Amino acid sequence: MELMMRNMFQSLGKSRAANRLAKKYGLRFGAARFVAGETIQQSINAVRGLNQDGRVATLDHLGEFVFSEEEALESAAMCIQTLDAIAESGVRSNLSLKMTSLGLDISRELCVSSMKRILDRARMHGNFVRIDMEDYAHCQVSLDIYRELRQEYDNVGIVIQAYLFRTLKDIDDLHELGANLRLVKGAYKESPEVAFPEKSAVDENYKVIIQKHLLNGHYTAVASHDEAIINFTKQFVSENNIGKDQFEFQMLYGICEDLQKQLVKEGYRVRIYVPYGVDWFGYFMRRLAERPANVWFVLKNMFK
């Protein structure tokens, strides 16, 4: 049953028709728990609240359904506006983005051009940009573009997914760049030909890449709500005398808030991924697919 629900929500997340319907009805039925709002100001207000109790953030203007050059340029403009708003407001937040929202599927050149404009603005503000990793079809091109950008920019990082077979080699290949990586388990539905189908194998690979990247001496963002993974990381850095300035924990907006606050009290840097925008449906569906508890939360809201 759980697998059927996960597959259903992952499929819905890729549906253009469902996305159009979601935009029509807005952030209802519980989506507002996971999405900070539809405007920049709403997202800045959410980050300010996080900052007040010691959490930092990374803002993401959601945009997964981009089918024209015009939409891609609009998405890039929103990323730049977000960086300006962060600087103007003084909140402590980076920027995260998906390169498909910048037109990666339309034109590689268009995407790279927009990335450079975004990184130029981030550098002007002394800020940092994280490239989110998407499904397996976009993995290699994302890493290729990241390598290209690193020739000019040191204020850009990328995400690596533990559930892919290729991940350990990717960690090795990125070592020479001194890459700042966000390490995640992975949230997309992938073929067993390219990804571990068993959770236990994903968890084990996750631990391996956390260890490897930390021991390589590069900044590591451990993005997980799994307390076993978090405790593993805490023990590993303690045993290997790795300073708290070399890593951080990352979690999603609206999930495990008590754990987020507890880690802050223990002196760890905790960064919250704060999504906003009108194109929130695909993100919301992945959150429902990940945890059945999220589905029951939404159902309760529907019948209130």
Automatic annotation (TrEMBL):
<keyword id="KW-0560">Oxidoreductase</keyword>
<dbReference type="GO" id="GO:0004657">
    <property type="term" value="F:proline dehydrogenase activity"/>
</dbReference>
<dbReference type="Pfam" id="PF01619">
    <property type="entry name" value="Pro_dh"/>
</dbReference>
<keyword id="KW-0547">Nucleotide-binding</keyword>
<keyword id="KW-0274">FAD</keyword>
<protein>
    <recommendedName>
        <fullName>proline dehydrogenase</fullName>
        <ecNumber>1.5.5.2</ecNumber>
    </recommendedName>
</protein>
<keyword id="KW-0642">Proline metabolism</keyword>
<comment type="pathway">
    <text>Amino-acid degradation; L-proline degradation into L-glutamate; L-glutamate from L-proline: step 1/2.</text>
</comment>
<dbReference type="InterPro" id="IPR015659">
    <property type="entry name" value="Proline_oxidase"/>
</dbReference>
<dbReference type="InterPro" id="IPR002872">
    <property type="entry name" value="Proline_DH_dom"/>
</dbReference>
<feature type="domain" description="Proline dehydrogenase">
    <location>
        <begin position="46"/>
        <end position="298"/>
    </location>
</feature>
<dbReference type="InterPro" id="IPR008219">
    <property type="entry name" value="PRODH_bac_arc"/>
</dbReference>
<dbReference type="InterPro" id="IPR029041">
    <property type="entry name" value="FAD-linked_oxidoreductase-like"/>
</dbReference>
<keyword id="KW-0285">Flavoprotein</keyword>
